[in-house]
Amino acid sequence: EPFVADEYIERLAWRTPGGGSRGGEAFDPKRLLEEFVNHIQELQVMDERIQRKVEKLEQQCQKEAKEFAKKVQELQKSNQVAFQHFQELDEHISYVATKVCHLGDQLEGVNTPRQRAVEAQKLMKYFNEFLDGELKSDVFTNSEKIKEAADIIQKLHLIAQELPFDRFSEVKSKIASKYHDLECQLIQEFTSAQRRGEISRMREVAAVLLHFKGYSHCVDVYIKQCQEGAFLRNDVFEDAAILCQRVNKQVGEVFSNPETIQNIFEVKLQSYVKDQLEEHRKSDAEQYLKNLYDLYTRTTNLSSKLMEFNLGTDKQTFLSKLIKSIFISYLENYIEVEIGYLKSRSAMILQRYYDSKNHQKRSIGTGGIQDLKERIRQRTNLPLGPSIDTHGETFLSQEVVVNLLQETKQAFERCHRLSDPSDLPKNAFRIFSMLVEFLCTEHIDYALETGLAGIPSSDSKNANLYFLDVVHQANTIFHLFDKQFNDHLMPLISSSPKLSECLQKKKDIIEQMEVKLDMGIDTLNCMIGQMKHILAAEQKKTDFKPEDENNVLIQYTNACVKVCGYVRKQVEKIRNSMDGKNVDTVLMELGVRFHRLIYEHLQQYSYSCMGGMLAICDVAEYRKCAKDFKIALVLQLFDTLHALCNLLVVAPDNLKQVCSGEQLANLDKNILHSFVQLRVDYRSARLARHFS
User: Fold this and answer.
1) Could you list the residue ranges forming a coiled coil in this record (predicted)?
2) In the listed set 132, 167, 189, which residue is the last one of a domain according to the structure?
3) For labelling, which of 435, 506, 624, 692 has a CA lying 20 to 30 Å from the CA of 327?
């Protein structure tokens, strides 16, 4: 423990009699001082003794340090000597090794020619036997030495090919005959070993046959026996996968290049694919494309399973080549078949729909006389003949759209699977162009054109406005079209230059349809025309100048009730037919025209005091109807009109005050004057004086 002087003094004082207050014992400072002095002397003696011991140990330590340093120096010298000896030994070993290598090279240089000479001598001996026509060597007569015989005959066969035919034709034919016999024997031996399940013997025979021309025949024999009883079910792909999985390990053990053995399924699949596709290639494009997509998908799935097997270093390239060899003749013209089928199928879907409606498609909007007449009639209301009656038919069908989109979706899926990666964006764009042609142009655009041609003139009575139904359905269909564009086309072209081309084509389609919808604003003229008919038929002059001023029982006129009911229906129809900013744009235009109609309508009558009150009630009801538009400008216009109607009933003395009010202060004085003139009492000198 660390030494603490204060605690040490305390313990010393506590042990000394009279040094503390223990047991009531009196404190004795002299006794304590004497104890301290004695203790100090003892400590001094102890310090001297310890100091001498320390000096002795220091001297001993210095002596041992000198001895250790001397010993270390001696060891360093010994180490240097040993290192020098090691270097000398290493140099000697290197010298000896060099000599040994040189000697080995010399021995090899002598032995290799000697071995070749011995080998050549043996081959010459065997060649002489063929030359003499009698095979005496044990290697040719002993069936157990077929491996050695195969090695010899293979070498003799190579040598014989270099000999001139005119002098050695007979011996060459004998060697070739023996070569063929041994080859057949080896293949037979391989077949027998396979049937017996002797893998080691199969591997041994296959290694010998590797240098023979008949090695591929050996592989074919192996494949044929493996396939016996393998393809018994209808699913050839599953059977091929099971077969490859079963023989994969054995192939690796028997053959040195397992890649060559994969035609276990290649030949079988190629014939199966050909049978399935050629049957429908020219007669049924739909079934042909479905079969092609299905077969290609199942083949690629099978190749994915084969990736687990030992197929050499570059499995992916090998399997890709394998698949390409099977389908190349079908994939080369795939997109042409796809486009041809899609075009005929889409045309059939549309034609079947129009036939079900007993409708003969006609050329609309081509710039002909009929089209010109229609445009003039819509824009000027000139009586150039009746509009085209569509009998309430929009000529748009959700079923047709779903069928077209489904066909295109399947085409996109096939395109993704069957197209070469470099051709994928281009092929996808061609399919998209087909969808645009038949869905957008031949169906939606045709329906819009027909709807435009069917818009009645503004002076038609009881006209049915079916164009809004066309707009509603076209809007819904285009949302489906846009969804397919994003879900199925975009992934195929997102990283290619075709993306901008597709987006531009889609933008052009949208702009083209918006032009047609803008032209459909003539529907608003029809709505206003219907309101005019209602007002003309229902509004009476006596409504605002009743004979009995004190006996008016109605809150607003019958014309007002019918007009408001009609307007509310049209507003609801517009909201259901359109979306986004289009709703507000169309409702604003309708609201402004509705206000102008009511304003001009009110200008046609004279108003008594009670008639003016009834006009105010009518305008208040029109204003409630205007709130349904949810357009601030329209509501403001009707608020101002309501304020103007107050001029019809206000007392002459208050006219100037009302005209300077918040809502009327900014209006032109002529407008205010025109409303005051509608009062039956306007000609009275008092009213004219007050207003002037």
Assistant:
1) 40-78
2) 132
3) 435
Residues with Cβ within 8 Å of 429's Cβ and at least 6 positions away in sequence, in order, are: 493, 498, 501, 502
Kindly state whether residues 71 and 196 are assigned to the same domain: no
* Residue 514 half-sphere exposure toward CB, CA atoms < 13 A: 10
Could you tell me if residue 19 is inside a domain?
yes
- Give the domain range for residue 643: 539-690
Q: What's the CA dihedral at 537, 539, 542, 544 to 10 degrees? A: -170
pTM, entire model: 0.58
Under a CB-based contact definition with an 8 Å cutoff, are residues 297 and 413 in contact?
no
| 597 in a structural domain | yes
pLDDT at 312 over 60: no
Instruction: Report helix, strand or coil for 534.
Output: helix
Question: Is the separation of the CB atoms in 245 and 230 below 8 Å?
Answer: no
Angstrom distance (rounded) from CA 642 to CA 622: 9
Tokens of 491: 């992934």
Environment class of residue 148 by beta-carbon count within 10 Å: exposed (0-12), middle (13-18) or buried (19+)?
A: middle
Asked if residue 163 and residue 276 are part of one domain, the reply reads yes
pLDDT digits (tens, 9 = 90+) for 569-625: 989 888 887 777 878 888 898 899 999 999 999 999 888 888 888 899 999 999 999
> DSSP character for 629?
T
Q: Number of folded domains in the chain?
A: 3
User: pLDDT-derived band of residue 208, with 50, 70 and 90 as boundaries?
Assistant: confident
Whether 369 is covered by a domain: the verdict is no
- Among 132, 157, 188, the domain boundary falls at 132
128 plus 143 within the same structural domain: no
Q: Are residues 93 and 159 in the same domain?
A: no
How wide is the angle at C-alpha 659 spanned by C-alphas 656 and 662, nearest 5°?
130
How much is the CA Rg of the chain, to the nearest whole Å? Answer: 56
